[in-house]
Amino acid sequence: MGAHPVPAANEVGCASDEPIATLIRHWFPLWTPPAGNARWLKTRCPFHDEAHASASISYEYQAFRCHGCGVKGDIIGLIREREELAFGAAQRRAEEILGGSYKPVPRESARVTRRRAFGEPRTVGSERAGPGRQVPPWLR
Ligand SMILES: [Zn+2]
Known about the structure:
The protein contains 3 helices and 4 strands. The protein is of the alpha+beta class. It has a 4-stranded antiparallel β-sheet. A hairpin with a 4-residue loop joins strand 2 (55-58) and strand 3. Helix 2 packs across helix 3. Bound molecules: zinc ion. The site of zinc ion (ZN) has 8 residues, from loops. Zinc ion (ZN) is lined by residues 45, 47-48, 55, 66, 68-69, 71. Residues 41-95 form the Zinc finger CHC2-type domain.
């Protein structure tokens, strides 16, 4: 009984487990993801050099935006911008970088017809970014 210990996703200290944080740390290993429960958390922007926090990150939306240099996007958006990839290639990059912690964000476009490309979907432990998740309007 009392089976597997499930890590509390909201706990301070788990921020670096967030896919969006993992992605940014893949590019900027020295960047420290902010912890907290707010929808948007202030952080220093790793994409440009700055002394003050002018960027925000959201674990709820799995997105990042910077008011200083203008970098913003969700996981795929950031990969596309940073590595100059098309959408499909960026999805593959996300899987490479994030492994099982990355789940494609369902887009409401009707042209998601290539889902068999990656083989079986992986089973992921953290399910808190549930099916109710949507791309916020400011990311479109
Ligand atoms: Zn910036």
